[in-house]
Amino acid sequence: MQWYLVAALLTVLTSSQGILTTLSQSNGKYKYDYATIPFLAEFFKLSVSSFFLWKECQSSSPSRMTKEWRSVRLYLVPSVIYLIHNNVQFATLTYVDPSTYQIMGNLKIVTTGILFRLVLKRKLSNLQWMAIVLLAVGTTTSQVKGCGDAPCDSLFSAPLQGYMLGILSACLSALAGVYTEYLMKKNNDSLYWQNVQLYTFGVIFNMGWLIYGDFKAGFESGPWWQRLFNGYSITTWMVVFNLGSTGLLVSWLMKYSDNIVKVYSTSMAMLLTMVLSIYLFSVKATIQLFLGIIICIISLQMYFMPVHMLIELPQTLPVTSK
């Protein structure tokens, strides 16, 4: 399977993630404990990866698996980063409004490119750097509201702590992605074995988060495992399946492609979600959205197209001998 097919599927799944989550609400509220969604998604990813790893082990050519603890413990790091990132997200939203938070989240596009260069030592051309910056500009443009919808100075009214936490959130998101790519490519281990290690820690940390929530609430609703499926509907299960499948596709991209492809997939998914929301939830279309889509398409062409297709180089005249 080619990476661009996986990227296209990732775009579709990511764009439907927010829509399914919205549809899973009842009268604007969740009937289920939304903290159980990441736990079940991690468990789904672990189960699928374990099954395919078992199938690989049954084949004539056994999978390569590095089992030393010094290697396994490295897979704990992304779980810690994501746990910190989730808490920073909540802290950021106490200082800034959701629109400002979404716009600041686009910083992860640029920070991913920077860490991609510094950590993975992957060199990008000047044209590719321009494309990455243009992608950030395009996604930001699509999210900016007009002066008729919200005060134009609302983006600059938040306290300094909000902007600092927003920048930290973007850096943590980029760091988690780049570090995961480093893990996936540092050796020739089976992708499914790497996923098993990654998602085992994911299950453990999400379970720990549920237990922490029980202690924080004083066990008013009972232990988490007793209410795990309370309020679940078919749409809720689709959210779990969507989130889990998205994670599996991202791990494939981290192994066989790179973070920049993932950034473009998620950015295009965000734009697709905004377009679909116009028809599904009667969201008002804006000129900024369509300008942002055009800018992002230009960025996509600039980054992935060969230079000779972007720039018409002058043909050199044949030298005639006298």
From TrEMBL:
For this protein, the record's Pfam families field holds: Nuc_sug_transp (PF04142)
Where, per UniProt, does this protein localize? Golgi apparatus membrane; Membrane
Signal peptide span: 1-18
Transmembrane segment boundaries: 34-54, 74-95, 101-120, 127-144, 164-184, 196-212, 232-254, 261-281, 287-305
Q: How does it sit in the membrane?
A: Multi-pass membrane protein
Q: Which GO terms describe its cellular component?
A: Golgi membrane
What exactly does this protein do?
Answer: Sugar transporter involved in the transport of CMP-sialic acid from the cytoplasm into the Golgi. May transport important nucleotide sugars such as CMP-Kdo (2-keto-3-deoxy-D-manno-octulosonic acid) in physiological conditions.
Q: So what family is this one in? A: Belongs to the nucleotide-sugar transporter family. CMP-Sialate:CMP antiporter (TC 2.A.7.12) subfamily.
Which NCBIfam families does the protein's record reference? nst
Q: What is this protein called?
A: CMP-sialic acid transporter 1
Organism the protein comes from: Urochloa decumbens
